[in-house]
């Protein structure tokens, strides 16, 4: 899961719940969202916060949720820390 589609539409002011059509559409998507979460075998969220939001809904038969963060630890991937010998070995392995 990358986000909560219907809520993002409200946050971005694309939909307004004051409009009866958008209110119907919003409720439809929120219902489907919960349906998908309970009928799936597993859910992958890109953030811990998203996982916490879903778990707070206390849905019956909630699928297990795993988090795969969608950001990079730039201190871990610092080019200055690259071992050039290991890099050469890895590049050679890739070419073969």
Describe the fold and architecture.
- The chain has about 100 residues and is mostly helical.
- The chain has one domain (about 5-95).
- It contains four helices and two strands.
- It has helices at about 5-10, 20-40, 50-55, 85-95, and strands at about 45, 65.
- The chain has a two-stranded parallel ribbon.
- Strand 1 (about 45), helix 3 (about 50-55) and strand 2 form a beta-alpha-beta unit.
Concise overview:
The protein has helices at residues 5-11, 20-39, 48-56, 84-95, and strands at residues 43-45, 65-67. Strand 1, helix 3 (48-56) and strand 2 form a beta-alpha-beta unit. The chain is built from four helices and two strands.
Biggest sheet strand line-up: 1-2
User: What percent of residues are in strands?
Assistant: 5-15%
What is the element string, with H for helices and E for strands? HHEHEH
Shape field? elongated
- What is the total domain count? 1
Level of helix content? 40-55%
Number of helices: 4
Quick one: biggest sheet?
2 strands, parallel
Low-confidence stretches: none
Number of distinct beta strands: 2
> What's the pLDDT, averaged over the residues?
92
The N- to C-terminal Cα distance equals 36 Å
What value does the Rg take, in angstroms? 21 Å
User: What class do helices, strands and sheet pairing give?
Assistant: mainly alpha
């Amino acid at each position: 899961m990358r986000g909560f589609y219907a809520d993002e539409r409200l946050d971005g002011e694309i939909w307004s719940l004051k409009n009866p059509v958008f209110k119907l559409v919003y409720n439809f998507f929120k219902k489907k969202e919960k349906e998908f979460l309970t009928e799936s075998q597993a859910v992958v969220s890109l953030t811990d916060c998203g996982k916490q939001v879903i778990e707070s809904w206390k849905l019956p038969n909630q699928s297990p949720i795993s988090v795969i963060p969608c950001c990079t630890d730039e201190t871990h991937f610092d080019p200055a820390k690259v071992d050039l010998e290991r890099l050469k070995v890895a590049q050679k392995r890739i070419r073969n």
